[in-house]
Amino acid sequence: MNNKKFDYIIVGAGSAGCVLANRLSEDANNSVLLLETGGSDKSIFIQMPTALSIPMNTKKYAWQFETQPEPHLDGRRMHCPRGKVLGGSSSINGMVYVRGHAKDFDEWQQYGAKDWDYAHCLPYFKKAETWAFPGDEYRGKEGPLGVNNGNQMKNPLYKAFVDAGVEAGYLATDDYNGAAQEGFGPMHMTIKDGVRSSTANAYLRPAMARNNLTVVTHALVHKVLLDGKKTVGVRYERKGKLFDVNVNKEVILSAGPIGSPHILQLSGIGNRTTLEEAGIDVNHELPGVGENLQDHLEFYFQFKCKKPISLNGQLGLWNKFLIGTRWILTKQGLGATNHFESCGFIRSKAEVEWPDLQYHFLPAAMRYDGKEAFAGHGFQVHIGHNKPKSRGAVKVLSDDPKAHPQICFNYLEHEDDKEGFRACVRLTREIIHQTAFDEYRGEEIQPGIEVQTDEEIDTFVRQFVESAYHPSCSCKMGEDEMAVVDSDTKVHGIEGLRVVDSSIFPTIPNGNLNAPTIMVAERAADIIRGHKVLPPSDAEVRMSPNWQQQQR
Predict the structure, then answer these.
(1) SS3 state at 78
(2) Which residues neighbour 496 within 8 Å (Cβ) at sequence distance 6 or greater?
(3) How big, in percent rounded to 5, are the helix, strand and coil portions of the chain?
(4) E strand or H helix at 187, and its extent?
(5) Of 189, 234, 214, 202, nearest in space to 93 by CA
(6) 252 with 371: CB under 8 angstroms?
(7) What is the DSSP string of 269-292?
(8) Domains of the chain (ranges plus CATH)?
(9) Strand (E) or helix (H) holding 8
(10) How would you write 359-427 as a 3-class SS string?
(11) Angle, in degrees to the nearest 10, between helices 514-529 and 118-128
(12) Per-residue model confidence (pLDDT) at position 150
């Protein structure tokens, strides 16, 4: 590969990189190189949806990053896994498909990301997906990505959660990715024909048959090669050997919210002080690289279940064997879902214009690593405050590309974020204590009924809150002095270099990040190819009319 030339070099075969590899190689005149540090995604633990906890916690498939001691979480180091495999984090994630609220993208435009408002983004959400049910002006029918509802909420606990939300005074929403996010209803997931619909499966695998696309796995990118302020290629390592590969048009970093800022910094692009402290020559001062880092936190609200209907009864080895065997033979059953089949999006208080709290309901009481939380039957709801005001950073520590960067999110630094989690506890308790749950609801396991005051809630949250695995915003898009890329995803001040992944979000949306990351890559692909972008949508967005006075 030394001194070979490609029109486009894409760094990272993740949620964005696979999309770009497909779309850019659609033009037979483009030669495209896709570099990925990880290897093949052909593992049953990746492809079988119910096994989602395994790849996320496996070094072979994920960067097992860890934060610095978080100063506002009692000094806890937080787990921050990122995909290291074809498909990236779309091959290790929970497969939850949430676009975010329309106002999240209008907010991007307000922060300087021109034409990245909801009207301009919706057509690309539609382009990306094939929705499994009857469609409308909000849903796509011919896209690569399969989206459905798993097993159609067969377990009665799913419906009890939706009914409880409605009884508590919230809306029911048939499609939170449609006209109205706010409310309770079925949850959507990226699964097609019982198999994980990662971007490797949906986008990359069909494109790999093209002669103009070259995919190199087990390739650790050291840095972007520059000639002054012009990008000329990439240096990467494979099997102990270094390769310099050249580019005709552009290098596109799609290494994610940790990897992309780290590679920029290794290339001498970033905050001068950060680079100099790491012993890296400054090629281009860009102070926003690695800054503005954001993430979602969540915790589990767990209850014992009075009826033996929860998934806790399916966690024994024999039952897992039966579930796995059925999935292998038919791609159906409990193996074909992520088990998060109902959900809710609500506002934490009056004067919040659009939802800032998100629920994932699970008819089991267990941990993210797949282990039981306690003996017996139970259920839990994951709840988080999704519009945090706290900001962190990713900082290179060494010129060694194998050395992990320093990561600190400064979780719960801002008082509004603490207030949001107090609302999480109180509003969730109210919902679970509606009559819809009377026949199922047993003892509250976590947080525990004794957790009541602000101080008690704050203590519980500091000790038990976990990352929802949605890091983002560390190379934000915009025009201010801390912006890293412009609205065309070009790195400010550097010719021939772009960043396209969740790191360029100006602010974090209210929801899981795989769907908006794929959307960003779809739209960026049209921009990169010089295509006319899809015309903006005029689809209605339904909002709570009394949001200034009412919480629900």
Answers:
(1) coil
(2) 230, 231, 232, 247, 249, 250, 251
(3) 30, 25, 45
(4) none
(5) 189
(6) no
(7) EE-HHHHHHTT---SEE-TTTT-S
(8) 1-47+63-73+81-118+211-295+469-531 (3.50.50.60), 150-186+297-385+412-464 (3.30.410.40)
(9) strand 5-11
(10) EEEECCCECCCCCECCCCCEEEEEEEECCCCCCEEEECCCCCCCCCCEEECCCCCCHHHHHHHHHHHHH
(11) 100
(12) 84
Token pair of 184 as six digits: 């309770």
| pLDDT at residue 393 is higher than 80 | yes
| 296-304: average pLDDT | 96
Q: What is the DSSP string of 315-373?
A: -SHHHHHHHHHHHHHHS-GGGG--S--EEEEE-SSTT--S--EEEEEESS-B-TTS-BS
Q: Which residues contact residue 52 at a Cβ distance below 8 angstroms, ignoring those fewer than 6 apart?
A: 92, 93, 94, 95, 338
Q: Give the model's pLDDT for residue 371.
A: 61
d(CA 174, CA 139): 13
223 — phi, psi (to 5°)? -170, 165
Amino acid, single-letter form, for residue 170: Y
**Residue 467 falls in which region: left (phi positive, over 0), alpha (psi -120 to 50) or beta:** beta
What is the Cα–Cα distance from 121 to 496, expressed in whole angstroms? 24
Cα separations in angstroms, 394 against 66, 259, 304, 493: 12, 9, 40, 21
Q: How far apart are CA 97 and CA 424, in angstroms?
A: 22
| 542 Cα distance to chain centroid | 24
Radius of gyration of the chain (CA): 23
- Separation CA 508–CA 388 (nearest Å): 8
CB burial of residue 161 (10 Å; 0-12, 13-18, 19+): buried
- Phi and psi at 165, nearest 5°, equal -60, -40
The model's confidence at residue 369, banded by pLDDT at 50, 70 and 90, is: low
Residue type for position 81: P
Residue 380: pLDDT above 70?
yes
Residue 431 CA to residue 422 CA, distance in Å, equals 15
Half-sphere exposure of 431 (CA within 13 A, CB side): 30
State the pLDDT at residue 409. 98
Please list the active-site residues.
Answer: 470
- What secondary structure letter does DSSP report for 98? -
Burial 6-26 (b: 16+ CB within 10 A, else e): bbbbbbbbbbbbbbbbbbbbe
